[in-house]
Amino acid sequence: MNESQLSDLLSLGEGFTTEFKKSGTSNMGREICAFANATGGVILVGVANDGKICGVFDHNSLKSEVRTTARSAEPPIAVEVESVGDVLCVTVPEQQGKPYSFGGRFFIREGASSQQMSRDEIREFFYKEGLIHFDETACDRFDLKRDLNAEIWERFSRRARLPKGVDMLSTLQNLHLVRDGRMTHAGAWLLTNDITAISISATVTCALFRGTDKVQILDRKEYKGDLYSIYEDCMAYLQSKLNTELIPTATGREERPELPVEALREALVNAIVHRDYRSTANIQIYIFHDRVEIVAPGGLPAGMREEDLGFKSVPRNPLLFGIFQRMNLVEQIGSGIRRIRMMCRDYKVDEPVIEVSESWVTVTFRRPVMSQPESQPELQPELQPESGAESLENRIIRMLYQKSMSKSMLSSELGQKEISGQLNKVVRELMAEGYVEYTIPEKPRSRLQKYRLTEKGKKIQEKSEK
């Protein structure tokens, strides 16, 4: 630092990164610690509160005291000490070993002063710096004996691809979902039937709007099962509301959703595994006439910058991320955003726009021109039967009673030029109610996938024929 730079600092006065100290090293450890826990700063010894230089004597002795004080912090803090005229300048660079304490206490810079942190502030600081991961903490609302039953365990085992017959408790411990006899939050979110009993804001809200703003809502659903089920329900909702084009091929017609489904999946999974579960807000999926928005609370985790997106990843919930990897829902760490952009380019649609703030991350997919005109806000023409006409549900059941069919075949039989949102919705509802099932259940996204009636569905059709 030279005299010109010192003059500039003096003219600005005390602030978030500058502290004036008239003399000595009294409270020096507190100030150094506070700057180290923030973004760094400069302490000017020999300057009065009003910014006037009063100077200090015996700089060498004072430099030694400052360095000893900095080394006494836990962990030791690196500082730069130099003389500029009569002023001793103590520079605390931004540190990498946060949090720092001095004399067993933690300090933080608030405005132009240094304050001791309370217990809650220390805890919050640890979370923000990524030193404590909420998904790894014990969940007091989950009781292993009361809340974990055979049905939930079997469902989780299947999704996590666990070997048959493994011991439940020891396996959960090996997966680090149970620690010291208590379920972690990550485990509770995955092994529940209602996530609001664990974390009330861990739900996902899906909404369909008329036009390009939120003035008029056409449909809204909130999903609150376990995190895997929430993911599946949200994808079903998206696919039921978006358009699907039928592309002629040599062997028939191929279904082509207006947006790449895999890119939407990746964006949704990213939102689920990287959101801040301590936030009182939930994930929101908005479908507008011209775009789809996936909004996750929490901003970027500690250690991540906006320019890092697509190149590196710092999981906010590493335990949850690891289980989602095991469930085959995410690829290797750090590849999500890059894969989304690549899939959109390959699909010949616009790459998504990613907006980051302190509290939110929003991924916006621009819907292509094939979307319906503004005068048709329902996204797809609804197949509403005229009075006395056969319902769409009954028509689908009747057709599948004859033979297994893909959605494109069903659409063609119904006289549609493309697969409507209503058809998507009804097929998924029939599956959820147990009337229809996949012909290739182990590969839900197979291009050869068709639908067939279950025994329950066949009974409905046979009853109607009588």
Strand neighbour order, sheet with most strands: 11-10-14-15-17-16
Q: Return the CATH topology of the largest domain.
A: Heat Shock Protein 90
Distance between the termini: 94 Å
- Which class do the helix and strand fractions yield? alpha+beta
Rounded average pLDDT:
86
Record field, number of beta strands: 19
Total domain modules: 4
Total helix count? Answer: 16
- Our Rg estimate from Cα atoms comes to 30 Å
CATH architecture of the largest domain: 2-Layer Sandwich
- How is the main sheet built? 6 strands, mixed
Low-confidence runs (pLDDT<50, min 5 residues)? Answer: 371-388
Shape: elongated
Summarize the structure.
With 466 residues, this protein is α+β, with helices and mostly antiparallel strands. The chain has helices at residues 3-12, 28-37, 59-71, 119-128, 144-147, 150-159, 168-174, 185-190, 227-241, 261-274, 318-326, 336-346, 392-402, 407-413, 421-432, 455-465; strands spanning 18-21, 41-45, 80-84, 87-92, 101-102, 105-110, 113-116, 178-179, 182-183, 204-209, 217-223, 244-249, 252-257, 283-287, 291-297, 353-356, 360-366, 436-438, 451-453.
